[in-house]
Amino acid sequence: MSQDVTIFITDRNGVKHEVLAPTDMNMNIMELIRSYELAEEGTVGVCGGMAMCASCQCYVLNDVVSLERNPDEEAMLWEAYHVKDNSRLGCQIPITEDLEGLEIEIAPEQ
Amino acid sequence: MIQTDILIIGAGPTGLFAVFEAGLLQLKCHIIDALPQPGGQLAELYPKKPIFDIPGYPSVLAGDLVTNLMEQIKQFQPGFTLGETAETIEKLEDGTFIVTTNEGTKHQAKAIAIAGGLGTFEPRKPVLKDIEFYEKEDRGVDYFVKDPEKYRGKNIVIAGGGDSALDWSIFLSNVANSVTLVHRRNEFRGALDSVEKVQELKNAGKIKLVTPAEVVGFNGSERITAVDIEVNGARMKAECDYFIPLFGLTPKLGPIANWGLEIEKNAIKVNNALDYQTNIDGIYAIGDVNIYPGKLKLILCGFHEATLMCQSVYNRINPGKRYVLKYTTVSGVDGFDGTRKEAEKAVVKSID
């Protein structure tokens, strides 16, 4: 059985949550946020994970995951608001065993 | 006033399929949608992307699914009020409803089916001084292309880097006098054939490309006469009759949120044990817009919900009237337009 990883997520109200994420369900960070209901339903993952809405924008707070964005993600973030150097789209970060200890903060609503 | 049996709010796959199931029960439908074309998210967000979980289709492009649904329901002659948002609802003493759109179009119906998906798609507007002035009363800022003919012979500036900016630039280059496409980056993000086509039209001088650039201001006292564009820190002016920013759409539940419906998690609570009716008798909510224990936001679930909703509306409109479920293979499909679809009869013939 594959290992769950622990991820720290700060929600839009500034509350920090420690959550367990499965690594064998083909999930991404956006889906993890939705599964723990850490943001109001309908305000995160609006496009379903196609990198087309930026509602799952997160700030990466430690170096557990690369800040390198894929081309779709880069294009979307160019048009989004509240974008910082450490912005990524949660839906473009697959949950793998390498993410143990990742810390992120959910960006404000678009 | 438009009169119908079921007024469907939302022309996505769930709303479209409801027309078919209603038609089998001899119920007429009319659909309101805020977008200028039917299809909802499928047409607006990802028409060229495949869907793999429609039963019976190993893969179907979202745009093709919408085309097929429109073909499937056409004999039931649904009416459409497109490009308008359902704003207010009034329940009359006889149990019927009057729904009025933001443009004042009135619809009277015996039942309402809200199939609003994620909500009304509202355009993401660029933050520009005076944009609220120019977006009104045909003063030159449009967020949707509703009627391409409006732009015939005009000078158009389009802003954006996605599929809709690309596709409308291509389309309008054949209609307008000139098309200028402005985008913040040199890279565009869209279907490969769209990007290549824009490249071709640019080379042929039919689309003027300005990148990396941004529209930063307007000129014109009564309506737009030109926009200011900032390219690499320098300013230029582009004469135009219309400026169309296409920066994507954000869904909002919108005015429906004020109809007195029970809302939970940005969705409308329904009775899933029976018929997907809301807390208001006669108003149903189907597809992604509703919520109940175990809800899954899948197109196939929307189809199921639409079917049960139609049965409930039939009973509501025809209390006590007998009806049995019919199979289309056995009974065929009789359209309101006089057409009939039916299975070919098997022959009864001896074989020597």
Task: Give a verbal description of the structure.
Chain A is of the alpha+beta class. In chain A, 15% of the residues lie in helices and 21% in strands. Chain A is built from 2 helices and 5 strands, in the order ββαβαββ. A 5-stranded mixed sheet of chain A has the order 2-1-5-3-4, covered by helices on one side. Chain B has 352 residues and is of the alpha/beta class. The longest helix of chain B is centred in the last third of the chain and has 19 residues, at 299-317. Chain A binds chain B through residues 40-43, 46-47, 50, 52-53, 71-72, 75-76, 78-79, 110, and chain B through 45-46, 49, 118-119, 124, 160-162, 184-185, 187, 189, 247-248, 250-251, 253, 265-267.
SSE inventory with pairings:
The complex is a heterodimer of chains A (110) and B (352).
Chain A: E1 5-10, E2 16-21, H1 29-35, E3 57-60, H2 71-79, E4 87-89, E5 103-106
Parallel strand pairs in A: 1-5
Antiparallel strand pairs in A: 1-2, 3-4, 3-5
Chain B: E1 2-9, H1 13-24, E2 29-33, H2 41-44, E3 50-51, E4 60-61, H3 62-73, E5 79-82, E6 86-91, E7 97-101, E8 106-114, E9 120-123, H4 131-134, E10 155-159, H5 163-172, E11 178-182, H6 192-203, E12 207-210, E13 213-219, E14 226-231, E15 234-239, E16 242-245, E17 249-252, E18 263-264, E19 267-269, E20 283-285, E21 290-291, H7 299-317, H8 328-331, E22 333-334, E23 340-341
Parallel strand pairs in B: 1-2, 1-8, 2-5, 8-20, 10-11, 10-16, 11-12, 19-21
Antiparallel strand pairs in B: 3-4, 6-7, 7-8, 9-17, 13-14, 14-15, 18-19, 22-23
